[in-house]
Amino acid sequence: MDTADRLIESTRELLWERGYVGTSPKAILQRAGAGQGSMYHHFSGKSDLALAAVRRTVEQMRMTADALLSAPGTALERITGYLRRERDVLRGCPVGRLTMDPDIIASPELRAPLDELFDWLRRRLAEVVAEGQSRGEFNAALDPAATAATIAATLQGGYVLARAADSVRPFEQAVTGVLALLASANH
Amino acid sequence: MDTADRLIESTRELLWERGYVGTSPKAILQRAGAGQGSMYHHFSGKSDLALAAVRRTVEQMRMTADALLSAPGTALERITGYLRRERDVLRGCPVGRLTMDPDIIASPELRAPLDELFDWLRRRLAEVVAEGQSRGEFNAALDPAATAATIAATLQGGYVLARAADSVRPFEQAVTGVLALLASANH
DNA sequence: GTCTATAATAAGATAGAC
DNA sequence: GTCTATCTTATTATAGAC
């Protein structure tokens, strides 16, 4: 892993732990074991480095989600697999947490990757819901787009509740709850 | 409004807009029109002032939510009223956003009010869900606690999706989706 | 490419006048 | 109670040596 890569990886970790506002170039450099010169040689500054880090994180999240949602099985099984996949719940979502960062939201360039990821996720979930409806798994009256937004929101909100409680319990309850609602709507 | 009050109100606004890490004492003082001396006379420092601000915000949120969830009407009507109440969605939840703040989560004292609010909210929602079940509005097989967690998570996650998209649309879809799931599970 | 030195500005808190 | 210095450390970036 070269220096630019180490800088990006350190930034990804720190953005996840402390967000954009809470992450200083100094902290990034210390974690990467690099000096100021390296960072300003490879990137124009903090925001440029953050952009590279965010893009990499978003790309990874998308691959993981797509693999789970495209796996074999019924629609409900695939949604369950996605919602119940192994997560470090109390660390929160590395992309979702950035939506609370004022400097990320104020920058169209930094916000764009988040927008694209969640837009893609909602579309993909809507496809899976629609497949479930055509197989008779879910109530045909449900709006796939709205249901997909609910599933994605349950996940993101589950992280919020879990971090407030310092416990994975509320996250697991929220996931259990939405899966039960989906399953009970199968007519 | 005296100086201590103005400091608390300025802090509440800034915590909502920029979070704890992103809010400096200087910014608070400028917004409140006060000097350093005032702040350190009334509060021991940034975290003490933030604690007062968070407590006030939490108290207000709880009053608002309780009024809506205790209003007349069916369980579904009350949950709908709570989820669809007028909100400045793109500003996010003033309490939920703090769960992404590393310094808030690292401090048991600052995290406690968040924990208490969301714990209370889930319990209150669970009561309303249980009432709905006893009236035949919702499927009696649903777990009230899990369903309540899903409703609260949909709200918090809706903010995340909306801010990523810079649009209230995903929030509204998530709310519509969870209400449709609740209504379709009425057997 | 990477390093250290330097610099201007801000964060967070203290001291002491009034 | 409130104000204006003052202080220490961090932030973000630039300069120039190697």
Question: How would you characterize this protein structure?
Answer:
2 copies of one chain form a homodimer. The first copy, chain A, is an all-alpha fold. Helices cover 71% and strands 0% of the residues of chain A. The first copy, chain A, has 9 helices and no strands. Chain A has helices at residues 3-18, 25-32, 36-42, 46-69, 75-83, 102-105, 108-134, 144-165, 169-184. The model of chain A has no long low-confidence stretch (mean pLDDT 97). The structure holds a DNA duplex (18 and 18 nucleotides).
Please give the structural blueprint.
Two copies of one chain form a homodimer.
Chain A (H helix, E strand, L loop, with lengths): L2 H16 L6 H8 L3 H7 L3 H24 L5 H9 L18 H4 L2 H27 L9 H22 L3 H16 L3
The structure holds a DNA duplex (18 and 18 nucleotides).
Q: Quick summary of this structure?
A:
Chain A has 187 residues and is mainly α. Helix content of chain A is 71%, strand content 0%.
* Share in helix of chain A: over 70%
Number of helices of chain A: 9
Structural class of chain A: mainly alpha
In terms of quaternary structure, what is this?
A: homodimer
Arithmetic mean pLDDT of chain A: 97
CATH architecture of the domain at 57-184 in chain A: Orthogonal Bundle
Radius of gyration of chain A, in Å, reads 19 Å
Give a short account of the largest sheet of chain A.
Answer: none
DNA-binding region (chains A, B): 24-43
Organism (chains A, B): Streptantibioticus ferralitis
Keywords (chains A, B): DNA-binding, Transcription, Transcription regulation
Protein name (chains A, B): TetR/AcrR family transcriptional regulator
